[in-house]
């Protein structure tokens, strides 16, 4: 892989046992990650979990305390940043203030002595719809425009691996959607490998082929977006990627296809292949949109779990769906998303309701239920995720 | 280059319509507030300048004593001083240029270390800054005299150099171009270091990282990013060194580090004013010195294009 020419295809990235310690603080511990060539990979996690540090290690701006980094099979751990076939879209943009937008974009091309840098820079600026501002200074652009210039400055180099550190954070919703599409198109057209860092779970899910959910310097779970959503492995993933209703209890019986868990006296069944643990105390869960509300006790015998009775304590209408909070004695508060199929809510505050869901929609976590501190910290990120979600919803409504 | 494009486009388009009426309105309060400054300038800058200009055209009084002159328009004074003293004029500017160059060469790495590398250790940063400023606590006359002692023929430095045959048996260090440029460089290093430090201290290292990420080697990052971004400091430091160095008459004086062959314009002006009592020549030389510095500085500031970075 030479620096002097455009990459004709993406390269895979391998992180082997990466560890990064700052004085008195371990930012990343034992990180193992393989990103296939040509994929759109999202690193998703809350603020401060080590995403930027991971990118800086890959870019060569930070030296790992331990472990190896391989790009396209070649060990680059000891390579200097400017020798690596990698470009970064920085979270802070870091556009050179003493150069025009055009010169900023052409900078990498000139360093690599690639022919016709100006024309190629114009092309890249056209791609991000900023060619008309090519002769401005970065500080004369808005935040969103600067971000697009930063994107153009990296993409124009056609690196085998493009690192994006929350590149769409400063854009308004419409532009963000547009840029998400653009990014995805560029990535697919050129077949480059994108490592996209974000704390926006929706962005990660819509754009990425593979998502790795990161928490406190460790990868909690990695997989395709749908797989991660349908079958989260830890309470953190279950709540960071969308919302979940989680219950804890001992496994009371096991059949060849399912386990039954006793949750405060009510039996809940989870399919065996959807449970990460099959004995002892386990945490199981179900997504809010999988729940159905009933105003009389349902009489299902098989194939559905039933909880109740509980009492509706909050109803909030959000357009496509309505969110109900249902307090079930001995279990806690459950969240239910119900499609607005009829006018008016299906239940009012104070109503007595039962909840049911298809057994096949439940999932069992791999977490140790006695691992109390992890749960507490997760509550915090859950609120972050919820706040983001509600702010996105209001944004949608305004747009 | 690119700077021209910048200045011609943006600010004029946006700023012009909105600010015009405000700028045009003359406020008596503003004028009143400016009054002390204007008075001060008239009294202590304009008056001596006019006096100097008038003196430079004076002609010797007929049958008068030495040092007696009448107001006239004797422009030949200028021709005379240039033909007599052109070696001193050339020497002044070449010594000042050399001193500025060496001071920059020494100060830039120093300021870079204090302002960028030492950021992690604020205590070391302050300590080094104090060390840069500390020499100011002793009069520069004394310090320059001390160097004269250090460079004198009997000094340990010169003796050792001679013992090592790095210096011929008949050679001297004081009174040479070397010692004068050395003295100028030494005396102006703090004036170079401090403005450099203030810009480098604010240098955002993320730009350097971005440069590294975009395939620029450390040297290219330095040339394409660090230097342009620290241009305001470089311009301020070189001006603060070059301007006083060109007019300096202490270092080149025979009483300090200079000799007969190293006299600069300052020395000639001093001699003409105080010894020869040839006031018109001294005044003409002063005007020439000032004009040349003004021309050089304005070209320099324009070329370096630092107006917007300042
Ligand atoms: N240079 C540094 N020195 C000490 N701690 C650092 C340094 N850089 C980052 N950290 C810490 O490492 C953690 C991860 O930071 P970062 O990778 O920037 O998080 P993210 O990008 O996921 O928000 C944070 O707690 C941060 O305070
Ligand atoms: Mg970050």
UniProtKB/TrEMBL annotation, chain A:
<dbReference type="InterPro" id="IPR017871">
    <property type="entry name" value="ABC_transporter-like_CS"/>
</dbReference>
<dbReference type="GO" id="GO:0005524">
    <property type="term" value="F:ATP binding"/>
</dbReference>
<keyword id="KW-0547">Nucleotide-binding</keyword>
<dbReference type="InterPro" id="IPR013611">
    <property type="entry name" value="Transp-assoc_OB_typ2"/>
</dbReference>
<dbReference type="GO" id="GO:0043190">
    <property type="term" value="C:ATP-binding cassette (ABC) transporter complex"/>
</dbReference>
<dbReference type="InterPro" id="IPR008995">
    <property type="entry name" value="Mo/tungstate-bd_C_term_dom"/>
</dbReference>
<dbReference type="InterPro" id="IPR003593">
    <property type="entry name" value="AAA+_ATPase"/>
</dbReference>
<dbReference type="InterPro" id="IPR027417">
    <property type="entry name" value="P-loop_NTPase"/>
</dbReference>
<dbReference type="InterPro" id="IPR003439">
    <property type="entry name" value="ABC_transporter-like_ATP-bd"/>
</dbReference>
<dbReference type="Pfam" id="PF08402">
    <property type="entry name" value="TOBE_2"/>
</dbReference>
<dbReference type="GO" id="GO:0022857">
    <property type="term" value="F:transmembrane transporter activity"/>
</dbReference>
<dbReference type="GO" id="GO:0016887">
    <property type="term" value="F:ATP hydrolysis activity"/>
</dbReference>
<protein>
    <submittedName>
        <fullName>ABC transporter ATP-binding protein</fullName>
    </submittedName>
</protein>
<keyword id="KW-0067">ATP-binding</keyword>
<dbReference type="Pfam" id="PF00005">
    <property type="entry name" value="ABC_tran"/>
</dbReference>
<feature type="domain" description="ABC transporter">
    <location>
        <begin position="13"/>
        <end position="241"/>
    </location>
</feature>
<dbReference type="InterPro" id="IPR050093">
    <property type="entry name" value="ABC_SmlMolc_Importer"/>
</dbReference>
<keyword id="KW-0813">Transport</keyword>
TrEMBL record, chain B:
<comment type="similarity">
    <text>Belongs to the binding-protein-dependent transport system permease family. CysTW subfamily.</text>
</comment>
<keyword id="KW-1003">Cell membrane</keyword>
<feature type="transmembrane region" description="Helical">
    <location>
        <begin position="121"/>
        <end position="142"/>
    </location>
</feature>
<dbReference type="GO" id="GO:0005886">
    <property type="term" value="C:plasma membrane"/>
</dbReference>
<keyword id="KW-1133">Transmembrane helix</keyword>
<feature type="transmembrane region" description="Helical">
    <location>
        <begin position="95"/>
        <end position="115"/>
    </location>
</feature>
<dbReference type="InterPro" id="IPR035906">
    <property type="entry name" value="MetI-like_sf"/>
</dbReference>
<feature type="compositionally biased region" description="Low complexity">
    <location>
        <begin position="1"/>
        <end position="19"/>
    </location>
</feature>
<feature type="region of interest" description="Disordered">
    <location>
        <begin position="1"/>
        <end position="20"/>
    </location>
</feature>
<protein>
    <submittedName>
        <fullName>ABC transporter permease</fullName>
    </submittedName>
</protein>
<dbReference type="Pfam" id="PF00528">
    <property type="entry name" value="BPD_transp_1"/>
</dbReference>
<dbReference type="InterPro" id="IPR000515">
    <property type="entry name" value="MetI-like"/>
</dbReference>
<keyword id="KW-0813">Transport</keyword>
<keyword id="KW-0472">Membrane</keyword>
<feature type="domain" description="ABC transmembrane type-1">
    <location>
        <begin position="89"/>
        <end position="300"/>
    </location>
</feature>
<feature type="transmembrane region" description="Helical">
    <location>
        <begin position="282"/>
        <end position="301"/>
    </location>
</feature>
<dbReference type="GO" id="GO:0055085">
    <property type="term" value="P:transmembrane transport"/>
</dbReference>
<keyword id="KW-0812">Transmembrane</keyword>
<feature type="transmembrane region" description="Helical">
    <location>
        <begin position="225"/>
        <end position="247"/>
    </location>
</feature>
<feature type="transmembrane region" description="Helical">
    <location>
        <begin position="31"/>
        <end position="54"/>
    </location>
</feature>
